[in-house]
Amino acid sequence: MFGLAAIAPLSIAQDSSAAAEQGQSGDGSASEAGATGEAFGYEAVVAKAKARADKAYAAPPSIPDFLKELDWAGLDRIQFKRDQALWHDSDRPFEAMFYHPGSYYTHPVSIRLINANGEGRFAFDKNRFSYPDDQMRERIPDDLGYAGFKLLHELNHPGKMDEVLSFLGASYFRGLGADQHYGLSARGLAIDTGSNDGEEFPAFTDFWLVEPAAGDDTMTVFALLDSPSVAGAYRFELDPGDATVTHVEMTLFTRNAIDKLGIAPLTSMFMWGENSLSRLDDYRPEAHDSDGLLISAANGEWFWRPLVNPQTLWMNQFSAENVRGFGLLQRDRDFDHYQDLDYEYERRPNAWITPDGDWGAGRLELVQIPSDSEVNDNIALYWIPKAPVKAGQRLHYAYDIKWSTEGVVPNSLGHAQASRIGRAATVPGQPRNTIRVAIEFVGGELGGLEDSAAVQPRVNALRDATINNIQAVRNPHTGGWRLTFLVPTDSLDSPLELRAYLAGKEGGALTETWSYALKP
Asked: Among 38, 174, 191, 352, which is disulfide-ready with 327 (CB 3.0 to 4.6 Å)?
């Protein structure tokens, strides 16, 4: 992290209104930090979070109704002007652009800037936007506020600024590495997801953007989060590149006891894939932002769970004490498997989370929600501490999110490239009363193994069930091995949890562990 003393003074000469606002607080008076030159940092945000948690929760102000009534297309017609980006045409390695409130984004956020001179407000200015007509522009309040922002940096081509990180809506944010297309999102916090009493959605209410110096490779953003149950301080360290890394540090102060506190939550979309027993009628073979959950356990095991679009709500929990890493991945990078020129699913990033230090006892929860629309996220993943979360607690967590298209499993270990599941007949011409599972394992030592005796299939179920025809065969088309087995449909009167992997001649694992639930 770079220190505040190294940050050059704010330089946005092309925007005189914004320049005049630097060093002023929200009410227009000189801010304490701007006047004294004191460094504003994470501990100041922590103090603000603590002070807010000591008071009763107050919902943030809302935007005018006519902006709430905009549909997505209507909001999209309001565009931020590219030449109004913060730090545009300067020697700064980052730029910032801002989102206009409207439609789903009904609560403006406070934006403040930090440089060597201190802290100051970055006020809303509708001159930074182009509107569909003058009538709309005249209706916009002068003090409306921004819905969020996105950060840009050289990423794909020298001299061209590309989006690398975006904050918009509640506590949602998402990142990009080189040659990637926005897909899944992260969230600052999840509370009571899937609860019968309803989920609570904490929201970032205030942001502080630290102005980078000309030679900085990273950028810092501070944020304040609030909800009825908790207030929190956040620090984001952005390190963009082929794989973009976001370091997240958070300090939470609870107002109320929380039944289910979700740390480092991710949300994604899965409609159908090669593992779908049934799918929508569509010309595209697959449609998803992520195709699986990966866990790196403390005992060294790697655990892969292909995603599904279920017919009813699925919530699965996995032991994750001192978990080494977890995330939602898009392993399938073949355009032919999607055939979508618009959404480019093969370019969606993985989001891999590495805890900073030991988080202790806890579990991961995967939520999969029935969906018939690619617009809606229907997958959620987060870590839940085992210890009860009580009112009046202070909690601290830190972790990295790596946004990339890279593999995560060690090169020495094979991984599941595809999971194909469908109905089959045991004998041709007979009823299709069997489920055939075919898992394509590639990587690690598998490419150098030719003898069938050197690769042993291992399949087990977590309850009594019939599993037939278990075999592993070399697949010359992938350079790996295919593990296949059959499960009679009459074994599926209740959900059947399965585990599978390939072992070597001496019994050691050659691959990660594949996990799946077959349901009636």
From this structure: 352
- Render pLDDT for 17-30 as a digit per residue (tens, 0 to 9): 333 333 333 333 22
* Contact yes or no for 379/433 (Cβ under 8 A): no
Q: Is residue 306 part of a domain?
A: yes
**Do residues 89 and 148 both lie within one domain?**
yes
Residues 500 and 360 in one domain: no
Verify that 278 and 323 share a domain, yes or no: yes
Q: Which of 352, 384, 404 is the last residue of a domain?
A: 404
Distance CA 17, CA 128 (A): 11
When mean pLDDT is compared across 103-107, 126-130, 274-278, 430-434, the lowest value belongs to 430-434
Residue 108 CA: distances (Å) to CA of 124, 145, 202, 313: 10, 5, 14, 32
Q: How far, in Å, CA of 238 to CA of 123, rounded?
A: 23
How far is residue 36's CA from residue 47's CA, in Å, rounded to a whole number?
19
Q: Which residue has the tokens 């017919």?
A: 311
CA 138, CA 307: separation in Å to the nearest integer?
Answer: 47
What region, left, alpha or beta, does residue 455 occupy, with left being phi > 0 and alpha being psi -120 to 50 degrees?
beta
| Tokens found for residue 76 | 């999209």
Model confidence over 203-217: pLDDT tens digits? 999 999 999 999 999
pLDDT, one tens digit per residue, over 332-385 is 999 999 999 999 999 999 999 999 999 999 999 999 999 999 999 999 999 999
| Mean residue pLDDT across the chain | 91
Secondary structure (DSSP) of 150-198: EEEEE-SSTT-EEEEEEEESTTEEEE--TT-----EEES-EESTT-TT-
pLDDT(106) > 60 = yes
The length of the chain in residues reads 520
Classify residue 110 by its DSSP letter.
E
Q: Is residue 501 part of a domain?
A: yes
What's the pLDDT tens digit per position in 159-195? 999 999 999 999 999 999 999 999 999 999 999 998 8
35-47 CB burial, b ≥16 within 10 A, e <16: eeeebbbbebbbe
Parent domain of 350: 42-404
Q: Quick one: 312 and 366 in the same domain?
A: yes
By the 8 A CB rule, do 428 and 436 touch?
no
What are the Cα distances from residue 146, in Å, to 52, 80, 174, 196, 300?
21, 11, 18, 33, 45
In the beta sheet, which residues pair with residue 480? 475
- Containing 346, the helix (H) or strand (E) segment is none
Alpha carbon distance, N-terminus to C-terminus of the chain: 52
Using CA atoms, how far apart are residues 270 and 251, in angstroms rounded to an integer? 32
